Amino acid sequence: MAARPDITAWCPPVEGIEEVFHAHFIDHSYPMHTHDAWTLLIVDEGAVRYDLDHHEHGVLSHVVTLLPPHIPHNGGAATAEGFRKRVLYLNTAQVDEKLIGMAVDSPVLHDPALRRRIARLHTTLSRPGDELEAASRLALVAERLDQHLRNRLEPVRYAHDHRVAHRLRDLLDERFVAGITLQEAALRLHAHHTHLVRAFSREFGMAPHQYVTGRRVDLARRLLLQGLPGPDVAISAGFYDQSHLARHFKRVVGTSPGHYARTRGPLAPPAA
Q1: How is the chain classified by DSSP, letter by letter?
Q2: Per the confidence metrics, is the pTM higher than 0.85?
């Protein structure tokens, strides 16, 4: 009897990612098929073998695999133990379709730093409410994939763009509660979204999503000390839910929102 696969799949609210797919297969093999999207694959356990454009390839846990859209491929476990993988299906706005031929020739990328970035992106995508962080991480992943496919891996010197960094900060200050996507910010500021992430990070020493989280935590602190209930604080400060608030609050402040609220001193105003 075939082992039942362990699968988790979802469509995140992050522009550029069509689907996230996590799976543990023992004896499943994919027939030849195609996708409309780029397939960005990392293997966490085991090994995968597949055929792409009449050539056989293998995937181990230390590499990144990028399969191009519209090109038939198959796949299956390379050993009897099966494999555990994580996949991002990226739309063609993330990686130029003109680079499909390069990806067919070299689908396996030996880049430990890129693999770590992709793993962190998967972790971020699994947490509701962190879409700005996911979009920022995706922008840097897509940039690195483009560099690989164009064989431009030498260190890139990025010029400081103080003006766009400060304009982005003003926009984030305006929208930190309601939230704003990286793509919307790029349209508002007439700049590429990857450039926004790099310019902001170089100017202020933190990524845009870290700045937004800090602003939200600061607001949450004030609301907690005013006596607002935790669920109301989470929504009022721009967090997805109370769990989202608690995770970031503890990381920034060093304690839970509930414990922080209980520290209200005698001069704290009563709750309305």
Answers
A1: -PPPPEEEEE--S-TTEEEEEEEEESS-EEEEE--SSEEEEEEEEE-EEEEETTEEEEE-TT-EEEEPTT--EEEEESSTT-EEEEEEEE-TTTS-GGGHHHHHH--EE--HHHHHHHHHHHHHHTSTT-HHHHHHHHHHHHHHHHHHHTT--SPPPPPP-HHHHHHHHHHHHHHTTT---HHHHHHHHTS-HHHHHHHHHHHHSS-HHHHHHHHHHHHHHHHHHTT--HHHHHHHTT-SSHHHHHHHHHHHHSS-HHHHHTT--TTSPPP-
A2: yes
